[in-house]
Specification:
Structural class: alpha/beta
Strand order of the largest sheet: 1-2-5-4-3
Number of helices: 5
CATH architecture: 2-Layer Sandwich
Number of strands: 9
Radius of gyration: 27 Å
CATH class: Alpha Beta
Order of helices and strands: HEEHEEEEHEEEHH
CATH topology: Beta Polymerase, domain 2
Number of domains: 1
Helix content: 10-25%
CATH superfamily: NADH:ubiquinone oxidoreductase Nqo5 subunit
Length: 212
Amino acid sequence: MDLALKDLGEYITGHIPEDVTGYDLQLGELSITVRPESIVRVLTFLRDDVNCRFKQLMDVCGVDYPERELRFDVVYNLLSLTNNSRIRVKLETDEDTPVPTVTEVFSCANWWEREAWDLYGIYFSSHPDLRRILTDYGFEGHPLRKDFPLSGFKEIRYDDELKRVVYEPVKLTQEFRSFDFLSPWEGVQPVLPGDEKAGDPEDNAAETEGDG
């Protein structure tokens, strides 16, 4: 399988070298990296080429690396039922550079691109309906960015006087605390609460033998 994927990676890079910047094979999975402006051509090639036939786009998602200049990866996961194989297509972008939409190649990308926009702020140019899909219309920011505050920026509640939903700045009723949760195996106490009346098991065993 690894050899077949390696051959496929070389085949793709050899046929569209101006669009693909490289490929990688790890843990039995093939990934190719492409230029953002070439994503439509690459996905069209992978869908229509007789040796690829990746007819199904399974997912589009974002990954945030805030320490990088191009902080976002956009990842496209494709499946070929004909060849029983998968491929991952990746590109890099930032907050200001739009990525061409692939909805004309795979119509199912519509909602996934909206999700990437909503949660990461990755903009897709020429998208037919790029608006939030998971958060509320008045939501500020993009909650899956790694620099997004855990408490958010605003809180929502129903105002009984105004008889409508209102947005207000977040007000924490107590200072934010961080808890260090131990695993059940590491954090368990030798004697659990309520078991202290049972005494030492060794002493109990000695008393039992003495009674006998």
